[in-house]
TrEMBL record:
InterPro entries: Dimeric_a/b-barrel, Rham/fucose_mutarotase. Pfam families: rhaM (PF05336). PANTHER family: L-RHAMNOSE MUTAROTASE. Gene3D superfamilies: 3.30.70.100. This is L-rhamnose mutarotase. It comes from the Bacteria.
Amino acid sequence: MQRVCFLLKVRADRLDEYRERHAAVWPEKLEALSATGWHNYSLFLREDGLLVAYLETEDFAAAQAGLAATGINARWQAETAPFFESLDGAGPDDAMKPLTEVFHLA
């Protein structure tokens, strides 16, 4: 099982709305995440907008590709892209660059 962590930056003026959106994630989006191998997926948001994401999956590339193939993901990405800084025209999924794990206490 791969443990994956990545960072994004939520715009300071959209923090409350971002929290609200994630308090009510669409059921179809949740189903798509589970069906495509996203397990123990968590988002942590700091007050300055730093977003830390963590998930476990058998194969991150396959999980990303599977999710991208769903229609619900394209809708979610289009609606959530304006929440983020520095995407340079990419969607949030394209900006997910996994961090290198340097320690894990098993």
